[in-house]
Amino acid sequence: MAGCPKKDVCSLLTDKTFQKMPGLLQRFRKNFCEGDFALCARYKVAAACADDVVPESMLPTQIDWAQQIIQEEKPVKDASSESC
Is 15 exposed, middle or buried (0-12, 13-18, 19+ CB in 10 A)? Predict the structure, then answer.
């Protein structure tokens, strides 16, 4: 598996707070960046809307928040396209 197509632009991987928690960061990388990235909340928002819509503080596990952002962004963008 090639991994997440957003891993080169994901700010979570370079966040100074997570650099202080290497174990947690390593689990996120293994489970989401190198694993099933389609389950990552950050990826879902970036794929449905845009990279710059992903909140800096969003964790890969915050699916409910991701769905809320996608729903809030969609009406604004629907007039011009089918996705955010």
Answer: middle
- What are the mean pLDDT values of the chain's consecutive 10-residue runs (84 residues total)? 85 88 92 95 95 94 97 68 55
User: C-alpha dihedral over 39, 41, 47, 51, to 10 degrees?
Assistant: -140
Q: What is the DSSP string of 51-62?
A: GGGS-TT--TT-
Helices (H), the chain: 16-19, 22-28, 41-48, 63-77
- Spell 56-67 as b/e; 16+ CB within 10 A means b: eebbbebeebbe
